[in-house]
Amino acid sequence: MERLRLVPLDDTVVFPSMTVTLPVDVGTDDRVFLVPRHAGDYASVGIVAEVVDRVRLPGGGRAVVLAGLHRGVAGAARNDPAGHLVVEVEAKPDETPPRSRTAELEREYRAVVLEILELRGDDGRVAAFLRSITEPGALADTSGYSPDLSFAQKVELLETLGVVERLELALRLQRERLAELQVRKRIRDDAESGAQKQQRDYFLRRQLDSIRKELGEDETSVADEYRKKIADAGMPDAVREQAERELGRLERMGESSPESSMIRSYLDWLLAVPWAKRSEERLDPVHAR
After folding, report:
1. Which residue has the higher pLDDT, 30 or 275?
2. Residue 215's pLDDT is what?
3. Is residue 288 very low, low, confident or very high in pLDDT (cuts 50, 70, 90)?
4. Which letter does DSSP use for residue 72 in this model?
5. Strands 46-56 and 85-92
6. Is residue 208 in some structural domain?
7. What is the CATH number of the domain that holds 137?
8. Which residue from 8, 41, 150, 289 has the fewest beta carbons nearer than 10 Å?
9. Backbone angles phi, psi at 213, to 5 degrees
10. Looking at 85-89, 103-107, 160-164, 282-286, which range is the least confident one?
11. Distances (CA, A) of 159 to 64, 76, 180, 189, 281
Protein backbone atom coordinates (compact mmCIF):
# COMPACT_ATOMS: atom_id res chain seq x y z
CA MET A 1 0.00 0.00 0.00
CA GLU A 2 1.14 3.53 -0.78
CA ARG A 3 -0.27 6.71 0.80
CA LEU A 4 -0.91 9.36 -1.83
CA ARG A 5 -2.68 12.70 -2.02
CA LEU A 6 -6.02 12.32 -3.83
CA VAL A 7 -6.54 14.69 -6.75
CA PRO A 8 -10.14 14.57 -8.07
CA LEU A 9 -10.62 15.07 -11.81
CA ASP A 10 -14.05 16.48 -12.60
CA ASP A 11 -15.41 14.89 -15.81
CA THR A 12 -11.88 14.01 -16.89
CA VAL A 13 -10.21 10.60 -17.19
CA VAL A 14 -6.44 10.08 -17.28
CA PHE A 15 -4.93 6.74 -18.30
CA PRO A 16 -1.50 5.22 -17.71
CA SER A 17 1.17 6.61 -20.06
CA MET A 18 -0.81 9.84 -20.51
CA THR A 19 0.93 13.12 -19.61
CA VAL A 20 -1.30 15.98 -18.46
CA THR A 21 -0.86 19.46 -17.04
CA LEU A 22 -3.26 20.31 -14.23
CA PRO A 23 -3.71 23.62 -12.38
CA VAL A 24 -3.44 21.99 -8.93
CA ASP A 25 -1.10 22.38 -5.99
CA VAL A 26 0.43 19.08 -4.85
CA GLY A 27 2.95 20.63 -2.48
CA THR A 28 6.22 18.73 -2.41
CA ASP A 29 4.66 15.35 -3.26
CA ASP A 30 6.36 13.34 -6.00
CA ARG A 31 3.33 11.13 -6.64
CA VAL A 32 -0.43 11.68 -6.48
CA PHE A 33 -3.56 9.61 -7.03
CA LEU A 34 -5.84 10.88 -9.84
CA VAL A 35 -9.48 9.80 -9.61
CA PRO A 36 -12.26 10.76 -12.08
CA ARG A 37 -15.27 12.44 -10.45
CA HIS A 38 -18.72 13.34 -11.75
CA ALA A 39 -21.42 15.11 -9.74
CA GLY A 40 -19.65 14.16 -6.52
CA ASP A 41 -19.29 10.46 -7.40
CA TYR A 42 -15.79 9.02 -7.64
CA ALA A 43 -14.69 6.21 -9.94
CA SER A 44 -13.65 2.98 -8.23
CA VAL A 45 -10.27 3.00 -9.97
CA GLY A 46 -7.75 5.81 -10.31
CA ILE A 47 -4.27 6.43 -11.67
CA VAL A 48 -1.03 6.70 -9.76
CA ALA A 49 0.76 9.61 -11.43
CA GLU A 50 4.28 10.97 -11.08
CA VAL A 51 4.99 14.70 -10.83
CA VAL A 52 7.46 15.40 -13.64
CA ASP A 53 7.45 19.19 -13.57
CA ARG A 54 6.03 22.22 -11.78
CA VAL A 55 5.17 25.24 -13.91
CA ARG A 56 3.90 28.76 -13.38
CA LEU A 57 0.88 29.79 -15.44
CA PRO A 58 0.23 33.24 -16.94
CA GLY A 59 -1.31 35.35 -14.20
CA GLY A 60 0.76 33.79 -11.43
CA GLY A 61 -1.09 30.48 -11.01
CA ARG A 62 0.69 27.18 -10.52
CA ALA A 63 0.33 23.87 -12.30
CA VAL A 64 2.00 20.49 -12.34
CA VAL A 65 2.87 18.17 -15.19
CA LEU A 66 1.81 14.62 -14.34
CA ALA A 67 2.65 11.33 -16.04
CA GLY A 68 0.28 8.40 -15.49
CA LEU A 69 2.06 5.28 -14.24
CA HIS A 70 -0.49 2.55 -13.48
CA ARG A 71 -3.97 1.90 -12.13
CA GLY A 72 -4.75 1.81 -8.44
CA VAL A 73 -7.65 1.22 -6.06
CA ALA A 74 -8.21 3.54 -3.09
CA GLY A 75 -8.50 2.17 0.42
CA ALA A 76 -8.68 3.98 3.74
CA ALA A 77 -8.60 7.78 3.59
CA ARG A 78 -7.61 10.51 6.06
CA ASN A 79 -6.64 14.16 6.11
CA ASP A 80 -2.99 15.03 6.49
CA PRO A 81 -1.89 17.84 8.88
CA ALA A 82 -2.35 20.39 6.07
CA GLY A 83 -5.96 19.27 5.51
CA HIS A 84 -5.35 17.44 2.23
CA LEU A 85 -7.11 14.13 1.62
CA VAL A 86 -4.64 11.24 1.56
CA VAL A 87 -5.65 7.68 0.61
CA GLU A 88 -4.03 4.30 0.81
CA VAL A 89 -3.63 3.05 -2.75
CA GLU A 90 -3.34 -0.57 -3.80
CA ALA A 91 -1.37 -0.67 -7.03
CA LYS A 92 -3.03 -2.50 -9.94
CA PRO A 93 -0.42 -2.66 -12.72
CA ASP A 94 -1.34 -4.63 -15.82
CA GLU A 95 -0.68 -8.36 -15.71
CA THR A 96 0.14 -9.29 -19.29
CA PRO A 97 -1.85 -12.39 -20.33
CA PRO A 98 -0.53 -15.08 -22.69
CA ARG A 99 -0.05 -13.83 -26.23
CA SER A 100 -2.49 -16.45 -27.51
CA ARG A 101 -5.37 -14.70 -25.70
CA THR A 102 -4.68 -11.21 -27.01
CA ALA A 103 -3.07 -11.56 -30.46
CA GLU A 104 -6.32 -11.71 -32.45
CA LEU A 105 -7.91 -8.93 -30.39
CA GLU A 106 -4.86 -6.72 -30.92
CA ARG A 107 -4.91 -7.27 -34.69
CA GLU A 108 -8.61 -6.52 -34.95
CA TYR A 109 -8.36 -3.48 -32.69
CA ARG A 110 -5.52 -2.00 -34.75
CA ALA A 111 -7.41 -2.64 -38.00
CA VAL A 112 -10.58 -0.95 -36.73
CA VAL A 113 -8.74 2.08 -35.35
CA LEU A 114 -6.65 2.47 -38.51
CA GLU A 115 -9.85 2.50 -40.56
CA ILE A 116 -11.27 5.16 -38.24
CA LEU A 117 -8.11 7.23 -38.68
CA GLU A 118 -8.36 6.88 -42.46
CA LEU A 119 -11.95 8.15 -42.38
CA ARG A 120 -10.85 11.06 -40.22
CA GLY A 121 -8.01 11.97 -42.57
CA ASP A 122 -5.11 11.17 -40.22
CA ASP A 123 -1.76 12.37 -41.55
CA GLY A 124 -0.02 9.21 -40.34
CA ARG A 125 1.31 10.37 -36.98
CA VAL A 126 -1.47 8.84 -34.88
CA ALA A 127 -1.25 5.61 -36.88
CA ALA A 128 2.50 5.49 -36.26
CA PHE A 129 1.89 6.04 -32.54
CA LEU A 130 -0.61 3.18 -32.53
CA ARG A 131 1.82 0.83 -34.27
CA SER A 132 4.55 1.66 -31.74
CA ILE A 133 2.54 0.26 -28.80
CA THR A 134 3.36 -3.36 -28.06
CA GLU A 135 1.68 -4.00 -24.69
CA PRO A 136 -1.98 -5.14 -25.04
CA GLY A 137 -3.14 -3.22 -21.96
CA ALA A 138 -1.58 0.03 -23.20
CA LEU A 139 -3.07 -0.63 -26.63
CA ALA A 140 -6.57 -0.84 -25.15
CA ASP A 141 -5.93 2.36 -23.18
CA THR A 142 -5.38 4.30 -26.41
CA SER A 143 -9.18 4.40 -26.70
CA GLY A 144 -9.00 6.89 -23.83
CA TYR A 145 -7.62 9.47 -26.28
CA SER A 146 -10.76 9.28 -28.41
CA PRO A 147 -12.85 12.49 -28.30
CA ASP A 148 -15.90 10.45 -29.33
CA LEU A 149 -16.00 8.36 -26.17
CA SER A 150 -18.16 9.69 -23.37
CA PHE A 151 -16.93 10.24 -19.81
CA ALA A 152 -18.86 7.16 -18.67
CA GLN A 153 -17.29 5.00 -21.40
CA LYS A 154 -13.79 6.16 -20.47
CA VAL A 155 -14.44 5.45 -16.79
CA GLU A 156 -15.67 1.96 -17.72
CA LEU A 157 -12.45 1.41 -19.64
CA LEU A 158 -10.37 2.68 -16.71
CA GLU A 159 -12.18 0.42 -14.23
CA THR A 160 -11.64 -2.71 -16.36
CA LEU A 161 -8.54 -4.17 -14.73
CA GLY A 162 -8.28 -7.38 -16.78
CA VAL A 163 -6.26 -6.79 -19.93
CA VAL A 164 -8.23 -9.23 -22.12
CA GLU A 165 -11.58 -7.82 -20.94
CA ARG A 166 -10.28 -4.27 -21.49
CA LEU A 167 -9.19 -5.09 -25.03
CA GLU A 168 -12.61 -6.59 -25.76
CA LEU A 169 -14.32 -3.47 -24.38
CA ALA A 170 -12.03 -1.12 -26.32
CA LEU A 171 -12.67 -3.09 -29.51
CA ARG A 172 -16.45 -2.91 -29.01
CA LEU A 173 -16.32 0.86 -28.41
CA GLN A 174 -14.15 1.43 -31.47
CA ARG A 175 -16.40 -0.73 -33.64
CA GLU A 176 -19.32 1.48 -32.60
CA ARG A 177 -17.30 4.56 -33.53
CA LEU A 178 -16.40 3.06 -36.90
CA ALA A 179 -20.02 2.16 -37.67
CA GLU A 180 -21.13 5.71 -36.82
CA LEU A 181 -18.40 7.28 -38.96
CA GLN A 182 -19.28 5.00 -41.90
CA VAL A 183 -22.95 6.03 -41.68
CA ARG A 184 -21.96 9.70 -41.59
CA LYS A 185 -19.69 9.23 -44.60
CA ARG A 186 -22.45 7.43 -46.52
CA ILE A 187 -24.92 10.24 -45.78
CA ARG A 188 -22.35 12.86 -46.79
CA ASP A 189 -21.49 11.01 -50.00
CA ASP A 190 -25.18 10.61 -50.86
CA ALA A 191 -25.78 14.31 -50.28
CA GLU A 192 -22.80 15.26 -52.42
CA SER A 193 -23.90 12.84 -55.13
CA GLY A 194 -27.40 14.32 -55.09
CA ALA A 195 -26.01 17.84 -55.31
CA GLN A 196 -23.77 16.85 -58.22
CA LYS A 197 -26.73 15.27 -60.03
CA GLN A 198 -28.78 18.43 -59.52
CA GLN A 199 -25.93 20.51 -60.87
CA ARG A 200 -25.48 18.17 -63.83
CA ASP A 201 -29.21 18.27 -64.61
CA TYR A 202 -29.13 22.05 -64.40
CA PHE A 203 -26.32 22.34 -66.96
CA LEU A 204 -28.01 19.81 -69.24
CA ARG A 205 -31.22 21.86 -69.07
CA ARG A 206 -29.27 24.97 -69.94
CA GLN A 207 -27.76 23.20 -72.93
CA LEU A 208 -31.22 22.03 -73.94
CA ASP A 209 -32.48 25.61 -73.67
CA SER A 210 -29.72 26.75 -75.98
CA ILE A 211 -30.64 24.06 -78.50
CA ARG A 212 -34.31 25.04 -78.34
CA LYS A 213 -33.43 28.66 -78.96
CA GLU A 214 -31.37 27.64 -81.97
CA LEU A 215 -34.42 25.71 -83.22
CA GLY A 216 -36.72 28.68 -82.62
CA GLU A 217 -38.46 27.13 -79.61
CA ASP A 218 -39.03 29.05 -76.36
CA GLU A 219 -40.23 28.38 -72.79
CA THR A 220 -43.81 29.03 -73.78
CA SER A 221 -43.77 26.23 -76.34
CA VAL A 222 -42.30 23.87 -73.74
CA ALA A 223 -45.06 24.75 -71.27
CA ASP A 224 -47.71 24.32 -73.97
CA GLU A 225 -46.28 20.91 -74.81
CA TYR A 226 -46.52 19.85 -71.15
CA ARG A 227 -50.03 21.28 -70.90
CA LYS A 228 -51.16 19.24 -73.92
CA LYS A 229 -49.57 16.04 -72.57
CA ILE A 230 -51.26 16.56 -69.19
CA ALA A 231 -54.62 17.06 -70.85
CA ASP A 232 -54.21 13.89 -72.93
CA ALA A 233 -52.85 11.72 -70.09
CA GLY A 234 -56.24 10.88 -68.59
CA MET A 235 -55.07 11.70 -65.07
CA PRO A 236 -57.46 11.67 -62.11
CA ASP A 237 -58.66 15.16 -61.22
CA ALA A 238 -56.49 15.48 -58.10
CA VAL A 239 -53.35 14.39 -59.97
CA ARG A 240 -54.13 16.65 -62.95
CA GLU A 241 -54.59 19.66 -60.66
CA GLN A 242 -51.26 18.95 -58.96
CA ALA A 243 -49.52 18.61 -62.34
CA GLU A 244 -51.00 21.93 -63.50
CA ARG A 245 -49.84 23.62 -60.32
CA GLU A 246 -46.31 22.37 -60.88
CA LEU A 247 -46.47 23.46 -64.50
CA GLY A 248 -47.52 26.92 -63.34
CA ARG A 249 -44.50 27.04 -61.05
CA LEU A 250 -42.26 26.01 -63.93
CA GLU A 251 -43.62 28.83 -66.09
CA ARG A 252 -43.15 31.42 -63.36
CA MET A 253 -39.58 30.52 -62.43
CA GLY A 254 -38.33 29.84 -65.96
CA GLU A 255 -35.90 27.24 -67.22
CA SER A 256 -32.90 29.09 -65.80
CA SER A 257 -33.83 28.18 -62.23
CA PRO A 258 -32.04 25.10 -60.79
CA GLU A 259 -35.38 23.93 -59.35
CA SER A 260 -36.91 23.73 -62.79
CA SER A 261 -35.10 20.46 -63.49
CA MET A 262 -36.75 18.85 -60.45
CA ILE A 263 -40.19 20.09 -61.56
CA ARG A 264 -39.69 18.78 -65.07
CA SER A 265 -38.51 15.41 -63.74
CA TYR A 266 -41.64 15.27 -61.57
CA LEU A 267 -43.90 16.14 -64.51
CA ASP A 268 -42.17 13.57 -66.71
CA TRP A 269 -42.74 10.94 -64.01
CA LEU A 270 -46.44 11.82 -63.76
CA LEU A 271 -46.81 11.64 -67.53
CA ALA A 272 -45.07 8.26 -67.66
CA VAL A 273 -47.76 6.65 -65.52
CA PRO A 274 -50.39 4.88 -67.74
CA TRP A 275 -53.37 6.61 -66.12
CA ALA A 276 -55.83 5.90 -68.96
CA LYS A 277 -54.93 2.22 -69.39
CA ARG A 278 -56.61 -0.67 -67.63
CA SER A 279 -55.45 -4.27 -67.31
CA GLU A 280 -57.70 -7.27 -67.91
CA GLU A 281 -56.90 -8.80 -64.52
CA ARG A 282 -59.74 -9.27 -62.02
CA LEU A 283 -58.66 -8.61 -58.46
CA ASP A 284 -62.04 -9.35 -56.85
CA PRO A 285 -61.51 -12.09 -54.18
CA VAL A 286 -64.91 -13.58 -55.05
CA HIS A 287 -63.56 -14.65 -58.43
CA ALA A 288 -60.28 -16.00 -57.04
CA ARG A 289 -59.74 -19.73 -57.40
Report:
1. 30
2. 61
3. low
4. E
5. unpaired
6. no
7. 1.20.58
8. 289
9. -65, -40
10. 282-286
11. 25, 19, 25, 38, 68
Give the pLDDT score at 65.
95
Burial (0-12, 13-18, 19+ Cβ within 10 Å), 141: buried
Whole-prediction pTM? 0.64
173 and 117 belong to one structural domain:
yes
261, containing H or E segment:
helix 259-272
The range of the structural domain enclosing residue 224 comes to 218-272
Strands (E), the chain: 2-10, 19-22, 31-38, 41-42, 46-56, 62-79, 85-92
Residue 267 carries which side chain, given as an amino acid letter?
Answer: L
Average pLDDT over residues 226-245: 88
Summarize the chain as % helix, strand, coil (round to 5).
50, 20, 30
53 burial via Cβ count (<10 Å: 0-12, 13-18, 19+): exposed
**241: in domain:** yes
Residue 66's nearest CA partner among 33, 91, 95, 97 is: 33
If asked whether residues 144 and 222 sit together in one domain, one would say no
